[in-house]
Design goal:
- With 747 residues, this protein is α/β, with parallel strands linked by helices.
- It folds into 6 domains: 99 residues, PriA, 3(prime) DNA-binding domain (GIY-YIG endonuclease, 3-Layer(aba) Sandwich); 67 residues; 177 residues, Rossmann fold; 186 residues, P-loop containing nucleotide triphosphate hydrolases (Rossmann fold, 3-Layer(aba) Sandwich); 54 residues, no CATH class; 92 residues, Ribosomal protein S10 (Alpha-Beta Plaits).
- The chain has a 7-stranded parallel beta sheet with strand order 11-12-10-13-14-9-15, with helices on both faces. A 6-stranded parallel beta sheet has the order 16-26-25-17-24-23, with helices on both faces. The protein has a 5-stranded antiparallel beta sheet with strand order 2-1-4-3-5.
- Helices cover 30% and strands 23% of the residues.
- The protein is globular.
- It is built from 19 helices and 30 strands.
- The protein starts with 5 loop residues before the first strand and ends in a 6-residue tail after the last strand.
Length: 747
C-alpha cells in the first residue's frame, strides 16, 4: 500500500469531525493508524491521532493544508479494533472523536509528547506472614488497616497497590516487617509470567457452575461473538465461573477483559484473579499512579499481559486477541459515565465483543431489564445459578410493616425512634449469639431536612434546589449536591418559628442503635465516615475481624463484600428511593434491596433479612420479599412497554444549565422549536417531551432545563441528533448544552 500524501487526523481538542493534513516527505512510510502525532491547530500545536489516508479536498475548496509536524511514537498507541470502538462511541454518544481517543489513553500518552517507556524494572511486594492480626495491633490503626488489606487480598501484593489503597502504607509496611508480621520482597517484574497459577482453585464446582462453565468453554473454543447473561443469586459462585472462562481463553491464546463497577470496594475480586493468574493480570483504575497505569497499558498493548481487570474505563484497554469480555454486576449504575463522554460501559463491552468476535458474559443477581429483554428476545443466551455454593440457604426475608409496627419512643424525646421493636429484638438476639448485623439506609447525615413548625418552610441550599441535610457530628447543614456547609439556624428565617429535624440518615440510625442496644459495638460506613481509603479499609477490616457488631451504611455496604459473620441484614427504610421521579426507581429499589439482602448468611450460619417499610404492597418491596425476580421483572417490563420506556424505546436527553434563569429557559425553548421543525416523519415514531425545568431545577447556582427524545430505535434518533449537534454552535456560551444518549438518570 503506497504511503499516503494526505492524512485524516482527529485532534485532541473539543472540536467535531476529522481534519486533513499533508504528510511531509520526511514522514512518508512512518505513519500507521492509531499513532499519536503532533499537528498545528489554530495558532498552536496540539496532540493528534492519525486515522488513515484522507481524500483530497475538492478543487473548489482552495485551501492550503498544514503538514504533520512529528510522529510521537514508533508503534500505534491504539490498535485497529480500539479505533473502531472509539469511532462508534464518538458517533453514538455525540462526542468529539479526538477527545474520545484522548480520554481512552492512560496518563503519559495524553499530551503532545514522545512516548516514554514505563519500566519499573524492580517491584516491591508485600505478603502477610500471619492469618489474622494480633490483638496488640489494635492500638496501631494504620498498621492494623494495612495488614487487614494484605489479608483480604491474599498472597503477594505490590507495595505500590497497597500505597494507593492506604496513604502512608510504605512506611507502615516497614514497621509491620520489623514486627515479623509482613515479608517485603523486591523482584524483577516480568509481565506475562503466570506465577501462582491455580491458587485457591476449588476442586469441585456445583452442578450449575459446571453447566455454565461447559457452555462458556464451548463458546470460547468455537470463537465468534456470543453474548451470555449469567444470572446467579448472591453467593452462587459467579466469580469462579468467570475465572474458569478466563482460564479457557488463555489456553486458546486469547486475551480477556473483566469489568467491575467499583474496584476500590472489591479488592477480593482483584486478589482472586491475581492468585489464579499472577502477573498475567493488569489492573486499570484511577487510583493507580500515572506511571503504573501506563506500564499496565503498555504491557497489554504489547501482548505480554493478556488479562485486564478494571472499572468502566477499562472497556478501552488494548487487550490483544480479545476472546472474552466479562461485565460483573452488569446492572450497576456505576457503568454509566455522567460527564464528558457519557458512555455506558456495559453496552460498549457488548459492541466491542461484536467487533472483536469475542464471547461476552454479563453477570448479575439482579440483571438490568435491558439485558433481560435482550435475553427474552434470543439475543443473549441465559445461564442460571439458582443456588448458593455449598447448598447454603438463601436468607429468610421478613417484612416489618411500619404502619402496624410504628416505633414507640419510651423516653418521650423530641425525635421519633427509627428502629421498630421486631428489628431491635432481632438485633439483640443476633449480637447475643456472637454474630453480626448490617443496617442499610441509603441516606447520609442525621436528619434529611429541617422544617419550620409554624409556616412549613424547609431550609434549602442557596445554590441548589434541594434541602440541606443536618449532620449532628459536625453540627452543620450540608448540601449533598454542591458540598456547601452552613451553621444550624436557631429559628426559621421566614417567621422565626421553631425548626423540626425530620427525615432520617445513617448518622441518626447509628446514634439510635448505640442508645437502644448499648452493649453493641456500632460503626458507620458512608462517604462521611469513610473519608479516606485508609479509613474505609480500616472499617471493613475491623468488621471482618468481628470487632464491630453492627455496621450501619449506605449502598457502600451492599457492594462486593463477603462477611461470613453477618447473619442479619436490616433495611431501615425500603421506601427512600421509590418516590424519586425516575422511571427506573422501582427497578433500582429492587436491585438495591436484593443486593444488600445478599450480604446475609454467606458463612456457615443461615441468614435473615428484615425490611422496614410503610409500603409493603409496593411491587419492588413485595417481590423482593418473596425472592421473586421473575415476577418483578415481568410486571415491570409490561409497565415499561405500556409507557414506551426502555428497553422498548431508545432515548436521548438534551440537558441545559446556565447562570441566568431567563437565558437558559429561552435557549431551551429555542432548541425545542428547532427540534419540532426538524422532526422526522411520524412513521419513524420519534417523540419530544419538553422542554421542561429539570426535576432538580438548580445545582451550584445554575438553572437546569431538559428535553427528552424517544424513538423505537437509535437509528430513528441519529439524524435528528446530528442536526441538533450542528446547531449547538449557535447557542450562547453562557448556556451549556449536553446530549446524553441512553441516559441512566432523569434528575
Amino acid at each position: 500500500m503506497p504511503a499516503p500524501s494526505l492524512a485524516s487526523v482527529a485532534v485532541g481538542r473539543p472540536v467535531r469531525g476529522e481534519y486533513t493534513y499533508s504528510v511531509p516527505e520526511s514522514l512518508s512510510g512512518r505513519l500507521s493508524p492509531g499513532q499519536r502525532i503532533l499537528v498545528p491547530f489554530g495558532r498552536s500545536m496540539t496532540l493528534g491521532f492519525f486515522l488513515g489516508p484522507a481524500a483530497p479536498p475538492a478543487e473548489s475548496a482552495n485551501v492550503k493544508l498544514k503538514p504533520i509536524l512529528k510522529v510521537l511514537e514508533d508503534s500505534p498507541s491504539l490498535p485497529p479494533d480500539l479505533i473502531a470502538l472509539l469511532r462508534f462511541a464518538a458517533e453514538h454518544y455525540r462526542y468529539p472523536l479526538g477527545e474520545v481517543i484522548r480520554g481512552a489513553l492512560p496518563p503519559g500518552l495524553t499530551k503532545a509528547e514522545e512516548e516514554k517507556e514505563a519500566k519499573p524494572d524492580v517491584q516491591e511486594f508485600a505478603e502477610a506472614l500471619v492469618t489474622e492480626a494480633p490483638a496488640a495491633l489494635r492500638r496501631a490503626p494504620a498498621q492494623s488497616a494495612t495488614l487487614a488489606y494484605l489479608l483480604t487480598v491474599g498472597g503477594r501484593v505490590p507495595v505500590e497497590e497497597v500505597a494507593h489503597a492506604i496513604p502512608g502504607a510504605r512506611e507502615t509496611l516497614r514497621k509491620l516487617a520489623s514486627r515479623g508480621l509482613v515479608r517485603l520482597e523486591q523482584v524483577v517484574l516480568a509481565p506475562g509470567v503466570r506465577e501462582g497459577l491455580g491458587q485457591n482453585r476449588p476442586e469441585h464446582l456445583t452442578p450449575e457452575q459446571d453447566a455454565a462453565v461447559k457452555e462458556l468453554h464451548a463458546a470460547v473454543d468455537t470463537g465468534g461473538f456470543q453474548p451470555f447473561l449469567l444470572h446467579g443469586v448472591t453467593g452462587s459462585g459467579k466469580t469462579e465461573v468467570y475465572l474458569r472462562a478466563v482460564e479457557r481463553a488463555l489456553e486458546q491464546g486469547k486475551g480477556s477483559l473483566v469489568l467491575v463497577p467499583e474496584i476500590a470496594l472489591t479488592p477480593q475480586l482483584v486478589g482472586r484473579f491475581r492468585s489464579r493468574f499472577g502477573a498475567d493480570v493488569a489492573v486499570l483504575h484511577s487510583a493507580l499512579k500515572d506511571r503504573e497505569r501506563l506500564f499496565h497499558w503498555q504491557a497489554l498493548r504489547k501482548g505480554t499481559v493478556r488479562i485486564a481487570v478494571g472499572v468502566r474505563s477499562a472497556v478501552f484497554a488494548p487487550v490483544e486477541n480479545l476472546g472474552l469480555i466479562v461485565v460483573d454486576e452488569e446492572h450497576d449504575p456505576s457503568f454509566k459515565q455522567e460527564d464528558k463522554l457519557r458512555y455506558q460501559a456495559r453496552d460498549l463491552a457488548v459492541v466491542r465483543g461484536k467487533q472483536a468476535g469475542a464471547v461476552v458474559v454479563l453477570g448479575s443477581a439482579t440483571p438490568s431489564l435491558e439485558t433481560l429483554e435482550n435475553t427474552r428476545r434470543g439475543r443473549y443466551r441465559k445461564l442460571e445459578l439458582k443456588h448458593r455454593v455449598d447448598d447454603r440457604p438463601m436468607p429468610t426475608l421478613q417484612c416489618v410493616d411500619l404502619r402496624q409496627e410504628r416505633p414507640k419512643d419510651p423516653l418521650q424525646t423530641q425525635e421519633a425512634p427509627i428502629l421498630s421493636q421486631p428489628l431491635l429484638d432481632a438485633m439483640a438476639e443476633t449480637i447475643g449469639r456472637g454474630q453480626q448485623v448490617i443496617l442499610f439506609l441509603n441516606r447520609r447525615g442525621h436528619s434529611t431536612f429541617l422544617l419550620c413548625e409554624v409556616c412549613g418552610t424547609s431550609v434549602k441550599c442557596g445554590d441548589c434546589d434541594v434541602c440541606l441535610t443536618y449532620h449532628r457530628s459536625q453540627n452543620r447543614l450540608v448540601c449533598h449536591y454542591c458540598g456547601e456547609a452552613h451553621g444550624v439556624p436557631e429559628h426559621c428565617r421566614e417567621c422565626t418559628g421553631p425548626l423540626l429535624k425530620l427525615g432520617i440518615g445513617t448518622e441518626r440510625v447509628e446514634a439510635e442503635v448505640a442508645e437502644r442496644i448499648p452493649q453493641a459495638r456500632v460503626a458507620r460506613l458512608d462517604r462521611d465516615s469513610a473519608t479516606s481509603a485508609e479509613r474505609l479499609t480500616e472499617l471493613l477490616a475491623a468488621f471482618a475481624r468481628r470487632e464491630i457488631d453492627v455496621l450501619v451504611g449506605t449502598q457502600m455496604v451492599a457492594k462486593g463484600h463477603d462477611f461470613p459473620g453477618v447473619t442479619l441484614v436490616c433495611v431501615v427504610m425500603a421506601d427512600t428511593s421509590l418516590a424519586i421521579p425516575d422511571f427506573r426507581a422501582s427497578e433500582r429499589t429492587f436491585h438495591l434491596l436484593t443486593q444488600v439482602a445478599g450480604r446475609a448468611g454467606r458463612g456457615k450460619d443461615p441468614g435473615r433479612v428484615l425490611v422496614q417499610t410503610y409500603n409493603p404492597d409496593a411491587e419492588p418491596v413485595r417481590r423482593m420479599l418473596a425472592h421473586d425476580f421473575e415476577g418483578f421483572s415481568e410486571g415491570e417490563l409490561e409497565r415499561r412497554r405500556a409507557l414506551s420506556w426502555p428497553p422498548y424505546t431508545r432515548m436521548a436527553a438534551v440537558r441545559l444549565e446556565g447562570e441566568s434563569a431567563e437565558q437558559t429557559a429561552s435557549v431551551a425553548r429555542f432548541l425545542g422549536d428547532f427540534i419540532g421543525r426538524h422532526m422526522p416523519p411520524a412513521s419513524w415514531g420519534v417523540r419530544l417531551l419538553g422542554p421542561a425545568v429539570a426535576p432538580i431545577s438548580r445545582i451550584r447556582g445554575k438553572t437546569r432545563w431538559q428535553l427528552l427524545l424517544k424513538a423505537p430505535t437509535h437509528a430513528a434518533l441519529a439524524p435528528l441528533l446530528a442536526r441538533l449537534e450542528a446547531k449547538l454552535v449557535d447557542i450562547p456560551s453562557a448556556v451549556r448544552v449536553t446530549i446524553d444518549v441512553d441516559p441512566a438518570a432523569m434528575l
